[in-house]
């Protein structure tokens, strides 16, 4: 799990990178939760997603947004963090020029950033959004949502009420040609305390289903 440092818009960004064995392997990028609420690339959900993709033959990158860990800069309310994510994807693509596909996964704040990146980068063909904060941030940019993906959240989420996520999913489902798979984890709060195992079973099950259709 080599540590990597690459250049972002506000200075260096610190990451961890797992290279795939195959040259044309797809890329996956994992985005962490809110920097001002102890969100880092070492968050357990981010870490588990990183390995879920790595075990399925992806080249995987997770990194700290500006101002977190050894990444330079300071919190920028999402605007700068989106630029950080774009720079991270640029870096991953530069060292994987033959990559045949790209996925983005994010948790909470990271899910919001990831879905914005999805709109800007047509090469992103799949996404995993864990507890997207549909009540806290504007998701209206998803018009139309360009890729199929998974939205997973808990039915006991007090930070992002399930009804707000349902509203987002219903809006996305009206678009032709994409499939939004919504999964609700019973008894899970926003942080999936005590529910990490069913969360990851949902994530890996979805990934395996999508990848089976590719091969």
From TrEMBL:
Keywords (A to Z) from UniProt: Hydrolase
Name of the protein described by the UniProt record: Alpha/beta hydrolase
Cross-referenced PANTHER family: AB HYDROLASE-1 DOMAIN-CONTAINING PROTEIN (PTHR42103:SF2), ALPHA/BETA-HYDROLASES SUPERFAMILY PROTEIN (PTHR42103)
GO molecular function, one term: hydrolase activity
Taxonomic lineage from the root: Bacteria, Pseudomonadati, Pseudomonadota, Alphaproteobacteria, Hyphomicrobiales
UniProt domain Xaa-Pro dipeptidyl-peptidase-like: residue ranges: 17-138
Organism: Bradyrhizobium macuxiense
Domain of life where this protein originates: Bacteria
InterPro entries given in the database record: AB_hydrolase_fold, Xaa-Pro-like_dom
Keyword Oxidoreductase: no
Keyword Coiled coil: no
């Amino acid at each position: 799990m080599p540590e990597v440092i690459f250049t972002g818009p506000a200075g260096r960004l610190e990451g961890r990178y797992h290279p795939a064995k195959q040259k044309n392997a797809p890329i996956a990028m994992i985005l962490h939760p809110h920097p001002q609420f102890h969100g880092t690339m070492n968050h357990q959900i981010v870490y588990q997603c990183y390995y879920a993709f790595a075990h399925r033959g992806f080249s995987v990158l997770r990194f700290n947004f500006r101002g977190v860990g050894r990444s330079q800069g300071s919190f920028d309310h999402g605007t700068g963090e989106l630029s950080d994510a774009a720079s991270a994807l640029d870096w991953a693509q530069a060292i994987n020029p033959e990559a045949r596909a790209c996925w983005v996964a994010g948790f909470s704040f990271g899910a919001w950033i990831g879905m914005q990146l999805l709109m800007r980068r047509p090469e992103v063909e799949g996404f995993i959004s864990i507890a997207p904060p549909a009540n806290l941030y504007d998701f209206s940019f998803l018009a139309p949502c360009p890729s199929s993906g998974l939205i997973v959240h808990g039915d006991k989420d007090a930070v992002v009420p399930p009804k707000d996520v349902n509203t987002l999913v219903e809006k996305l489902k009206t678009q032709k040609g994409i499939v939004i798979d919504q999964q609700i984890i019973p008894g899970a709060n926003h942080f999936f305390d005590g529910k990490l195992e069913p969360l990851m079973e949902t994530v890996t099950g979805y990934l395996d289903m999508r990848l089976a259709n590719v091969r």
